[in-house]
């Protein structure tokens, strides 16, 4: 924290009841396995857990408690509230109000973590950056990022995720960003929003929550760009980024190197700045443009933006390249999947030399159109000339059938990953590239580990 807080401050600002007096604290935790004698413990309640069950055992292990019911038999100061998850956000809000530097927030259906890391690479050249760790981007994770602010930080970068229609508005109420962007809208977590239009409206709250004088960075290539502009609050500045030359920030002369990493001219104020990304995939040009727009809105010079983008590295489970046990190349894109990101992965794989194999786990939370979307991915893989498609999960059968139609190629659909790996390994050699992708629920990292773990261990030794 930038400065200590007290339970009394929280009670006066947000209500609730104090039991056993107040206490000053500088750290906050929610995990009983990681207790801090100098920290405040917030007893969260979920579908399958209730931290209040352990609160009576925390005497001497924490400074104080935030609880939904008074914990009898302990002398620890307690702030008793109606909802501890809301209280967690309220503590985060007070931490945010202590911070005076620029705050950038990113959301979108896919690529938002990559954009966040690109921004961190740009800003960290001259600034001390506090940035969302990993994917801690929800109502629990975002406050944790705010708790990590210190007096040394002068830039805050927040990633915001959503599973329901009001999530982004809630997070903006805590993080209070001044520069925001929706990276894209695609069919992801559709079940939580009802439709893709519902996703666009929910993500758009990152714009409608902006205060006057703030800046909205608009991906002009997204189908919902005009919709967001129509919803924009008065006195909010807008900055368009995209491939079109009518955008204030755009990309020109895009080409791919032999690894599959894009190079392009980043054009800002009609001046071109060459950029060679380390990241794989042409779709990362779009991610780079959104990051560039946010950085430019914060006053970062164009040349410095280009240098930062060139140094941005890959994120775990997102197009990371490994050597496989049989000498094959394994591209780990297992972190998550939706139709848009799978299409981008297929495009990347299609440009590789040698044999090309896609291993696809079921894409989750797609609603009533799930089977159709899987079928379309199979058709795309077939039409882009991939040599084989291995699918894991019941929805993958639709993709496998579509891939095999009219080609005479076998259908490879499995319900268990070990069986998939056993058959897959017979297809691999040093001229093969395997790209592994799927939703988190498919746990496709197990396939990556089965193909690479021993090889990577040998490399480390």
UniProtKB/TrEMBL annotation:
<dbReference type="Pfam" id="PF02875">
    <property type="entry name" value="Mur_ligase_C"/>
</dbReference>
<keyword id="KW-0961">Cell wall biogenesis/degradation</keyword>
<keyword id="KW-0133">Cell shape</keyword>
<protein>
    <recommendedName>
        <fullName>UDP-N-acetylmuramoyl-tripeptide--D-alanyl-D-alanine ligase</fullName>
        <ecNumber>6.3.2.10</ecNumber>
    </recommendedName>
</protein>
<dbReference type="InterPro" id="IPR004101">
    <property type="entry name" value="Mur_ligase_C"/>
</dbReference>
<dbReference type="GO" id="GO:0008360">
    <property type="term" value="P:regulation of cell shape"/>
</dbReference>
<dbReference type="GO" id="GO:0008766">
    <property type="term" value="F:UDP-N-acetylmuramoylalanyl-D-glutamyl-2,6-diaminopimelate-D-alanyl-D-alanine ligase activity"/>
</dbReference>
<dbReference type="GO" id="GO:0005524">
    <property type="term" value="F:ATP binding"/>
</dbReference>
<dbReference type="GO" id="GO:0005737">
    <property type="term" value="C:cytoplasm"/>
</dbReference>
<comment type="similarity">
    <text>Belongs to the MurCDEF family. MurF subfamily.</text>
</comment>
<dbReference type="GO" id="GO:0071555">
    <property type="term" value="P:cell wall organization"/>
</dbReference>
<dbReference type="GO" id="GO:0047480">
    <property type="term" value="F:UDP-N-acetylmuramoyl-tripeptide-D-alanyl-D-alanine ligase activity"/>
</dbReference>
<keyword id="KW-0547">Nucleotide-binding</keyword>
<keyword id="KW-0436">Ligase</keyword>
<dbReference type="InterPro" id="IPR005863">
    <property type="entry name" value="UDP-N-AcMur_synth"/>
</dbReference>
<dbReference type="Pfam" id="PF08245">
    <property type="entry name" value="Mur_ligase_M"/>
</dbReference>
<dbReference type="InterPro" id="IPR036565">
    <property type="entry name" value="Mur-like_cat_sf"/>
</dbReference>
<comment type="function">
    <text>Involved in cell wall formation. Catalyzes the final step in the synthesis of UDP-N-acetylmuramoyl-pentapeptide, the precursor of murein.</text>
</comment>
<dbReference type="InterPro" id="IPR013221">
    <property type="entry name" value="Mur_ligase_cen"/>
</dbReference>
<keyword id="KW-0067">ATP-binding</keyword>
<dbReference type="InterPro" id="IPR036615">
    <property type="entry name" value="Mur_ligase_C_dom_sf"/>
</dbReference>
<dbReference type="InterPro" id="IPR051046">
    <property type="entry name" value="MurCDEF_CellWall_CoF430Synth"/>
</dbReference>
<keyword id="KW-0963">Cytoplasm</keyword>
<dbReference type="GO" id="GO:0051301">
    <property type="term" value="P:cell division"/>
</dbReference>
<feature type="binding site">
    <location>
        <begin position="108"/>
        <end position="114"/>
    </location>
    <ligand>
        <name>ATP</name>
    </ligand>
</feature>
<dbReference type="InterPro" id="IPR035911">
    <property type="entry name" value="MurE/MurF_N"/>
</dbReference>
<keyword id="KW-0573">Peptidoglycan synthesis</keyword>
<keyword id="KW-0132">Cell division</keyword>
<comment type="pathway">
    <text>Cell wall biogenesis; peptidoglycan biosynthesis.</text>
</comment>
<feature type="domain" description="Mur ligase central">
    <location>
        <begin position="106"/>
        <end position="295"/>
    </location>
</feature>
<feature type="domain" description="Mur ligase C-terminal">
    <location>
        <begin position="317"/>
        <end position="440"/>
    </location>
</feature>
<dbReference type="GO" id="GO:0009252">
    <property type="term" value="P:peptidoglycan biosynthetic process"/>
</dbReference>
<keyword id="KW-0131">Cell cycle</keyword>
């Amino acid at each position: 924290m930038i400065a200590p807080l007290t339970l009394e401050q929280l009670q006066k600002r947000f209500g609730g009841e104090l039991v056993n007096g107040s206490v000053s604290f500088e750290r906050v935790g929610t995990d009983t396995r990681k207790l801090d004698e100098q920290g405040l413990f917030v007893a969260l309640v979920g579908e399958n857990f209730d931290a209040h069950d352990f609160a009576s055992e925390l005497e001497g292990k924490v400074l104080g408690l935030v609880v939904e019911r008074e914990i009898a038999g302990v002398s620890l100061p307690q702030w008793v509230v109606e909802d501890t998850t809301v209280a967690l956000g309220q503590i985060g809000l007070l931490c945010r109000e202590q911070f005076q530097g620029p705050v950038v927030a990113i959301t979108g259906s896919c690529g938002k973590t990559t954009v966040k890391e690109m921004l961190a690479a740009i800003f960290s050249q001259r600034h001390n950056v506090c940035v969302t760790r990993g994917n801690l981007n929800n109502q629990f994770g975002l406050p944790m990022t705010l708790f990590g602010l210190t007096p040394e930080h002068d830039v805050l970068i927040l990633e915001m995720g959503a599973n329901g229609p009001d999530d982004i508005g809630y997070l903006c109420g805590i993080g209070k960003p001044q520069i925001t962007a929706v990276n894209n809208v695609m069919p992801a977590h559709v079940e939580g929003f009802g439709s893709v239009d519902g996703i666009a409206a929910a993500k758009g709250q990152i714009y409608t929550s902006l205060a006057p004088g703030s800046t909205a960075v608009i991906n002009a290539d997204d189908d919902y760009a005009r919709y967001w502009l129509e919803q924009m609050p008065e006195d909010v500045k807008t900055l368009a980024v995209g491939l079109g030359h009518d955008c204030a920030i755009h990309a020109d002369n895009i080409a791919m190197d032999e690894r599959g990493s894009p190079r392009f001219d980043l054009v800002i104020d009609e001046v071109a700045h060459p950029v060679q990304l380390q990241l794989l995939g042409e779709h990362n040009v779009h991610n780079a443009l959104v990051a560039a727009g946010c950085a430019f809105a914060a006053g970062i010079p164009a040349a410095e933006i280009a240098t930062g983008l060139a140094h941005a590295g890959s994120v775990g489970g997102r197009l990371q390249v490994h050597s496989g046990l049989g000498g094959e190349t394994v591209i780990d894109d297992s972190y998550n999947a939706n139709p848009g990101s799978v299409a981008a992965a297929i495009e990347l794989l299609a440009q590789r030399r040698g044999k090309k194999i896609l291993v696809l786990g079921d894409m989750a939370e797609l609603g009533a159109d799930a089977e159709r979307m899987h079928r379309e991915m199979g058709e795309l893989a077939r039409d882009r000339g991939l040599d084989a498609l291995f699918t894991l999960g019941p929805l993958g059968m639709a993709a496998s059938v579509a891939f095999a139609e009219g080609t005479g190629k076998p259908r490879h659909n499995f319900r268990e990953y070990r069986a998939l790996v056993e058959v897959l390994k017979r297809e691999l050699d040093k001229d093969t590239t395997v790209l592994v992708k799927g939703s988190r629920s498919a746990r496709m990292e197990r396939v990556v580990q089965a193909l690479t773990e021993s090889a990577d261990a040998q490399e480390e030794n």
